[in-house]
Known about the structure:
The protein is of the alpha+beta class. The chain contains five helices and six strands.
Amino acid sequence: MYIPSPYKNKDQKEIKEFLRQNSFGILVNNTAGKPWATHTPLELDVDMDGNDVLVGHISKANPQWKYFREDKEVLAIFNGPHSYISSSWYKEEEVPTWNYIAVHVYGTIKILDKKAVLESLHKLVDKHEKGVDNPISIDDLSPETMKQINGIVGFQIHITELQATYKLSQTRMEDHPQIIAELNKYEGSGSKEIAKLMKNSNCPR
Length: 205
């Protein structure tokens, strides 16, 4: 993706933590001659060789998986908080804009066998059940319910490139105090999250 220099984040540790915290992504490939996108959980993990991978699954009814090729690149898109930025919050006249975080992950994909799919489902459920009052485990589900695993296709994406945009008004550092104050009053989507990120980011990346 196009990333202006002030907004490019090269901190691999920070990007990977973002992926762990924002693991519902959009998987994009070429399907039947046109771009195809599926919204699905994509969990950051490492393979047996210690390489970074994304692990996920989609329904077998979704034709996308039939076009997975190990020698073809796929794209996974992850979105973080975002918010409208009014130029009335600036000291000098300028156009309004938008602050946001987005990460693009490129890689090659392979389909997993049933054992690996089950292992990935255990990890996925255990991770997200931690915050539930009465957590369940895959082990708690009946064999009848678990037959549904036959209706999904699991896959692993070997990561070849990470691209991260952290657009947090880095080119208007003198306006940060006012922007942060206004964002904390603004009821737009993700405004308070963006304000917090700006407060914790004292210099351009």
